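User: quick one, sequence for these C-alpha cells?
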C-alpha cells in the first residue's frame, strides 16, 4: 500500500482525537496506520460534522465504550482500495484513489436475515463508525481522525460534483435517515405533512418533502429561531409548540388533519401533538426518540377510530443512503444548506468545537481535517 506524502522508510502515522469519557478533554494522539485488510478501503478524512449523538456522548447523556473516536458524519478521499474489494462503489462506478466519497455509518453481514429483509442497520455482525472502542490494532474508525479504514460490507458512494464538503459530510447520518423516514411514510406527493423537531433532520425532512411534492408543509418546534430557519427549507407554516403549550397558540395556524407526521425531536409532548394532528388514515413516523424520556401517552381509541399508523425508524438502509446522495446532488444549492454548519474548527481544536456546539446549538459544527 502506497500512502501519499510518506517518505520511504518512515512509518505511516495518522492523528486521531481520542474521547475517554464525559467531562474529560479530547486527546490528540498519533498512531501507526495498519495495513488495510481484505475488502477494506483506506480513506483520508476531509470533513466531519458533529451529530447530535456525538454531543450526547460528549455530555454523558449516552455511553460508549471508551477510549473511542467520535464522529460518524464524514466525507473523505479514497487513498487505497484493498485486495478482495470489488473496486466499485454501490452504484457500480469504479472506486479509485482520489475519489471523494461518503459511506454507510455501519457495516453488517449482507447475507443475514435482517439485511435480506431491508434492515442492514440491524443485521448480524453490525459495526458502526464513530461508536467503537480504540485499541492498539484497531483505531481508525471514526470521523475525528486523519484516516478511516472502511470495513468489508461498508457501502461507499461518490459525492456528486459540486456538493461542498461541509454539506456532503451530513449525508451519511442526517440526510440518509430522513430519506428512510420518507420511505416509511410512503407517497408524499400531494400530501399535507407536519414535521416536529427542527434540528438538522427536521430541516432536511422539510426540504425532502418539498422536493417530493408535498402540498403543505407544517413545521413545529419550541425554538423560534429554528422555526424561522425552517421556512428556507420549505416550510409553509411554522407553528410554535412553546406558545401552544403556554395556551396561546395560533388556532388558525395549528396543524390538524395532516396525512403524515414526522417526529425528529424525540420529545413526548411533540409526538403526542403529532398524533393528535393526524387526519383519518394518517401515518406517524418516529425518528427522534433515541434517548430515554417519559413514555408517550396515546389514546388507543383515537388510533383505532382514525385508522392511524405509527412507524419507527433508526438509521437507514442502502436504498435510503442512495436516495440521500442523489437528493443532495440535486438540492445542495436549492435549499440553504450552506447555513447548516454554524462554525468550523480544525481537528486539533475539536474540544472547542464540542463546547461551541453544546453552548450555541447551531444545526451542525464542522471539523475540517487537512486537505
Ligand atoms: Zn448521527
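Assistant:
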Amino acid at each position: 500500500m502506497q500512502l501519499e506524502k510518506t517518505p520511504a522508510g518512515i512509518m505511516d502515522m495518522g492523528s486521531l482525537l481520542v474521547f475517554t469519557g464525559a467531562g474529560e478533554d479530547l486527546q490528540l494522539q498519533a498512531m501507526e496506520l495498519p495495513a488495510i485488510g481484505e475488502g477494506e478501503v483506506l480513506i483520508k478524512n476531509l470533513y466531519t460534522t458533529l451529530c447530535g449523538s456525538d454531543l450526547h456522548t460528549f455530555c454523558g447523556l449516552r455511553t460508549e465504550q471508551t477510549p473511542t473516536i467520535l464522529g460518524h458524519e464524514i466525507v473523505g478521499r479514497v487513498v487505497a482500495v484493498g485486495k478482495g474489494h470489488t473496486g466499485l462503489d454501490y452504484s457500480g462506478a469504479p472506486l479509485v484513489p482520489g475519489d471523494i466519497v461518503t459511506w454507510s455509518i455501519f457495516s453488517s453481514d449482507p447475507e443475514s436475515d435482517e439485511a435480506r429483509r431491508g434492515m442492514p442497520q440491524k443485521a448480524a455482525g453490525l459495526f458502526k463508525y464513530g461508536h467503537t472502542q480504540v485499541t492498539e490494532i484497531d483505531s481508525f474508525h471514526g470521523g475525528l481522525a486523519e484516516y478511516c479504514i472502511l470495513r468489508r460490507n461498508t457501502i461507499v458512494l461518490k459525492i456528486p460534483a459540486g456538493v461542498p464538503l461541509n454539506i456532503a459530510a451530513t449525508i451519511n447520518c442526517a440526510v440518509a435517515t430522513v430519506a428512510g423516514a420518507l420511505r416509511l411514510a410512503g407517497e408524499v406527493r400531494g400530501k399535507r405533512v407536519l414535521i416536529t423537531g427542527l434540528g438538522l433532520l427536521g430541516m432536511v425532512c422539510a426540504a425532502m418533502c418539498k422536493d417530493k411534492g408535498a402540498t403543505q408543509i407544517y413545521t413545529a418546534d419550541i425554538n423560534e429561531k429554528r422555526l424561522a430557519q425552517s421556512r428556507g427549507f420549505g416550510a409553509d407554516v411554522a407553528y410554535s409548540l412553546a406558545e401552544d403549550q403556554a395556551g396561546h397558540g395560533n388556532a388558525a395556524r395549528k396543524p390538524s388533519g395532516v396525512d403524515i407526521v414526522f417526529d425528529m425531536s424525540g420529545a413526548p409532548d411533540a409526538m403526542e401533538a403529532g398524533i393528535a394532528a393526524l387526519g383519518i388514515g394518517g401515518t406517524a413516523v418516529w425518528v427522534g426518540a433515541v434517548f430515554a424520556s417519559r413514555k408517550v401517552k396515546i389514546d388507543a381509541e383515537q388510533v383505532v377510530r382514525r385508522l392511524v399508523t405509527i412507524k419507527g425508524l433508526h438509521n437507514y438502509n442502502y436504498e435510503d443512503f442512495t436516495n440521500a446522495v442523489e437528493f443532495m446532488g440535486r438540492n445542495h444549492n436549492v435549499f440553504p444548506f450552506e447555513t447548516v454548519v454554524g462554525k468550523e474548527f480544525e481537528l486539533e481544536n475539536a474540544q472547542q468545537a464540542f463546547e461551541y456546539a453544546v453552548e450555541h446549538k447551531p444545526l451542525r459544527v464542522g471539523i475540517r481535517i487537512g486537505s
